[in-house]
Amino acid sequence: MKPWWLLAVDGSAAALRAVDHVVRESLASAVPLKILLVNVQHALPSDITRFVSSSIVQDYHRETGDANLASARARLETAGIAYSQHILIGEPAPTIVDFAREHGCTQIVMGARGLGTVSGLLLGSVTQRVVHLTDLPVVIVK
Length: 142
Prior knowledge:
By secondary structure, this protein is α/β, with parallel strands linked by helices. The protein is built from five helices and five strands; from the N terminus they run E-H-E-H-H-E-H-E-H-E. Helix 5 links the parallel strand 4 (107-111) and strand 5 (138-141). 30% of the residues are buried.
């Protein structure tokens, strides 16, 4: 049985380091990994969506998600690693955790995000919430 890893990316440098980690682990693994490449978009506020058609909102989320996933896709494809891509809408941490649970993932991999000098010692708020909300192993790549 292939291990299912959820790889959460947002287009940041930290997320790309997480992609690089997954590439290294996948290439070294005796068993092929199944990678679910995920980007979570915040839902647009209702004061915007009530004046814009749902197809325009969907296009916006798809285009933004595609842009955030582009570098991660390129790195996985260059390494010859199979993946499925998912652009989700919602609050990032619970959406990541719920998607991982629903798809039987065995691990979540994501980048750490520093927030400044003193705060930079801590994990980003999404990363902290994912760790708090899930019972799955979470690999945080610095």
